[in-house]
């Protein structure tokens, strides 16, 4: 996915954003690439989830951004449920970002993420004006709001699964209590009948 195109260099800031949801393999990872130039900005917001409808656990995983020269770690998150990272690119190259499920055998774990690239253009560029800057700023804030809504949707799914699981447990516990009360009532009736039974000896 290449973020910079020559025909759009005249903008003060050029922002490209896309959203994805991918399934993570058990004990594996999924990696993606961005070709960026120095001083560009790469922003990634992500949320781990579980595709299994009966799941009530909040999934966690690892995330890392690697440089293109020596595959050095630029930014890394370990054992997190979600994250939001924004990195200024130090040099030109092809940068890699990976979502990892290496320490888990779960096959239904997925990750929803939004990738945003901001192409740097000098603020002192005579072709740049404040109106373009304001439009780009408004566009960025709108995307951040949408990313937050995506995060809330996944959290709602997890909480709904938890609530449904709790309701099932309460239902079966109530059935068990009713069964115990019925057994106890029958036992008391039987015991009281025996207690008041008249016995005669010949």
Please explain how this structure is put together.
By secondary structure, the chain is an alpha+beta fold. The chain has a single domain (6-158), classed as Sandwich (Jelly Rolls). The chain is 33% helix and 35% strand. The longest helix is centred in the C-terminal third of the chain and has 66 residues, at 130-195. The protein starts with 12 loop residues before the first strand and ends in a 7-residue tail after the last helix.
Features of the shown structure:
202 residues; alpha+beta; Jelly Rolls; four-stranded antiparallel β-sheet; 1 helix; 33% helix; elongated; disordered N terminus; GOLD_dom; LAME_0H16490g1_1
In short:
By secondary structure, the chain is α+β, with helices and mostly antiparallel strands. The chain is built from one helix and eight strands, in the order ββββββββα. The longest helix is centred in the C-terminal third of the chain and has 66 residues, at 130-195.
CATH class category label = Mainly Beta
Please give the radius of gyration in angstroms.
29 Å
Percent in helix: 25-40%
Low-confidence spans: 1-17
User: Can you give the mean pLDDT?
Assistant: 80
Order of helices and strands: EEEEEEEEH
Counted by DSSP, the helix tally is: 1
- Largest sheet report: 4 strands, antiparallel
CATH topology: Jelly Rolls
Instruction: Provide the number of structural domains.
Output: 1
Q: What's the architecture, going by CATH?
A: Sandwich
Secondary-structure content class: alpha+beta
Strand % is 25-35%
**Number of beta strands:** 8
Membrane topology: Single-pass membrane protein; Single-pass type I membrane protein
Family: Belongs to the EMP24/GP25L family.
Organism: Lachancea meyersii CBS 8951
Transmembrane segments: 172-192
